[in-house]
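B., you asked whether I could sanity-check this one before it goes into the benchmark set. Here's the sequence:
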Amino acid sequence: MNIYSHDKLEKSMQDTPTNALIRLIYISDINTADSSVFAHIQHHSESFNKENHIAGFLCNNNESFLQCLEGTKEVVSSLMQRIFKDKNHKDVDVVFSKKISGYSFTDWRMHSINLNDSNWKKFSNHTQLTDISPFKPQHWPHWFVDHFIESVKTIDYSNLDKDLITFDKLGYSDVQKTLASNNVLFYIFLSVLISSAVAILLFRYNVIA
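And here's what the prediction gave me:
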């Protein structure tokens, strides 16, 4: 299945009742360099998903989105209509859509997983997907997308060990946040060291009293 427009999506689901529960997976290219888009998606999805009984997860790296949505056909179709029009997405492709008997993801929060190259290695090891690397869903066969979804469903986010991948609402890993924090401390230390060295030299050569 490759569906590149909302009209084609509606046509493909025309025999599915409006209130039927469906699972839909789409892949798209990221069409923005603004990192705040991830915070916006997360903030919007938390309230929208809870109100509309949508479950699933969102994966991304610097190039691609892969999102799995579970909810009624009416609500998911309406959401996809907005995603097809969203300028943050490019080349949206619905690769999977079918009626399901129940939710696979019982937590309505839309977990956001950043799968850049370093995170993908840890994630793929944890989910036994080491044969496929890196995270490039546009090049995956459809059977592997389905396999990937099944693997993600096995993750218990509420009890994920810290040495594996845990993510905050912006999709950044604890490892990345720690590195960022360490960099800040390093630059503060470096600034103090340079300032001290300059002050010593100025005193030595009587530039300052």
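One thing to flag: DSSP finds six helices and five strands in the chain. Otherwise nothing jumped out at me.
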